[in-house]
Amino acid sequence: MPLENINLTGHFLIAMPAMTDSFFSKSVTFICTHNQDGAMGIMINRPTDITFETLFEKINVELLNIGVADKHVLYGGPVQPERGFVLHEITDGEWDSTVQIANNIALTTSKDILESVAIGHGPAKMLVTLGYAGWTSGQLEQEIMQNAWLSVQANDTETLHKILYDTDYDEKLSATLALLGVDPAMLSDVAGHA
Length: 194
Hints:
This protein is an alpha+beta fold. Helices cover 20% and strands 32% of the residues. The chain is built from 5 helices and 10 strands. It has helices spanning 52-58, 112-118, 139-145, 157-166, 172-179, and strands at 12-15, 28-35, 38-43, 47-51, 72-75, 79-89, 98-102, 105-108, 126-136, 149-152. Strands 1, 2, 3, 4, 5, 6, 7, 8, 9 and 10 form a 10-stranded mixed β-sheet that branches.
């Protein structure tokens, strides 16, 4: 299949060793949308020093659900780093700006989801990020051809959720590479094309 016809929505994007861009080096990105207009994803292995407690103070929402106070907000990518994104399991809750991605996963950008989290009624499984990673039409495909990225999709919802929500941030790179049967030490930064 020609590379321009692929759809990586719901896939993990793994930065190859040749990726020297400080934003993306050793990153794992979950692709939320990928179509003819470009791609958008959330980096899932870059915790910031901002906790939920600090975030909720900044957005003037009282955090009554103290069980999440120490969770870290992630750096989702270099685009709109002042804007929040919540990648979460799909629940009974309804929020103003939610897009279903795949395999019981959605992305919400409205503040009402955080207000629900604050009182313990939000999704139990979620990642909160500031910013996102974005590619223009054809840009991601070109970067894949240049050996900048590997892509892989989890075989099932349980594995997908485990990597997204339950794996330590510093182990997400190894966990996604394991989906390919690849040891990180075996990756080369030299492209090879047949």
